[in-house]
Structure formats: C-alpha cells, structure tokens
TrEMBL record:
UniProt organism field: Brasilonema octagenarum UFV-OR1
Name recorded for this polypeptide: Short-chain dehydrogenase
Classification via PROSITE patterns: ADH_SHORT (PS00061)
InterPro entries: CBR1-like, NAD(P)-bd_dom_sf, Sc_DH/Rdtase_CS, SDR_fam
Swiss-Prot/TrEMBL keywords: NADP, Oxidoreductase
Amino acid sequence: MQSNDKKIALVTGANKGLGFEISRQLAKQGITVLIGARDETKGKEAAEKLQAEGFDVQSIKLDVTDTSTIETVAKTVEEKFAKLDILVNNAGILGGREQLPSSVSVASVKEIFETNFFGVISVTQAFLPLLHKSPAGRIVNVSSGLGSLTQHSDPNHALYDTKLLGYNSSKTALNAFTVTLAYELKDTPIKVNSADPDSCKTDMGTDEATYTAEQGADTPVWLATLPEDGPTGGFFNSRKPIPW
C-alpha cells in the first residue's frame, strides 16, 4: 500500500483532451493521478506520456456506464491507497449537434444522460467511502455553461442559441447533483463543486473553440485543490461563480 501522505486523484475520461490536461496539472502539484479511461490501451498510452514527463500517474480501466468496472476500480484504489483525495468527474459525451427538443430521439437523450449524469452518480457513490477517509476530500463535476438555465434564458447571452436538449439538460442535472450532494456533505471536510471549463480545443470543442485545454483545466484543478476555507456547492468558470 502506498504512503497515506501523498494525495491521490482519480480523473474519469482522462486519456485525452480536458481530462488529460487536468491530470497533467494535478500531477504537476505532486499528486498521484489515476487516469480513468474506458479504452484500456488509450489509457495506458496517456499515462506513459505523462510518466515520460516525470509525473506519478497510473492508468486504470474505468467505464462510467459499467457498474462492474466502477466497483473493480473502487476496490483496487482501496487496496492500493486506502483513500481517495480528489475525484474529478470529467467523462462526458456531446451526443451530436442536432438535438432539437422536437426531434431528438429519446434513446439519444438517454445515452447522453447515462454518461454525463447517471455515470457521475455511480462513480461518486462508489468512491465516497474512500473520499471520507481523506482529510480534505474534493469532488469536481465537470459541467458546462450550457447547463446554466439562467444563461439559456437570456437572449443576450452568447450561449442563448446553442440549444442541445440532451447535452445541455444532462449538465443541468449534473449541477443539481452538485448542489444536493454538497448539502448532504456540508458537515464533512468534503467539498463538491461544478466547473465550467468553457469551450476548449479538444475533440468535443473542436479547433473552433476559444480556449486551450490548458486554460480549460485551470478551474477544475483549482476546485480539486481548494483549501479548507474554499467554497462548496458552487458553479465556477475562470475561478469565479456563475449562475445556475
């Protein structure tokens, strides 16, 4: 079993894009990072890249829609580290760019929710016992400004015209999970927050996005390493609160 002094972080969907960069930035702070990836080969390749940079990272096969892999990973982390300090629920899917509420298939919306919402609940519940063993557990749910009902209701907001029923509503639901879980854990050292990384130049954001993955990872990493007096139950972009 590894020494209990070093922080242990698990990042889901971490073999590429934003999750990979979040892993890199956490590892830069001397944290042991477990790269959760649905594709075992891609996870190992991602871990090797960061190991080559001298970081303490390990790959771990984790499909957030598969309960059996979640349970296996939780057991492995418990046996190897006896705790978890940071959980970054980053894994997510867009589900295509044609999601008009009048025509998007219910099956498509369900598929998006399986990863973006139900998967987060499953992973979080499985790892909560280990997060309780940390002196300063942190849960970061990687959400999106597209999940903000306030922003979507404002005709003058930049996101007003981006109406993707499945994706947007899955992130709204994710934010609700953040609020309710933070309330449940308010008398514990665990902090729970949602992060809006903005549109990043990743496979999901494409090259048309405004920000780099490095810029997008900054807020999730900040929330993952909050001090004792840091916020909980909030929604943040560029380290500043944004409306639900």
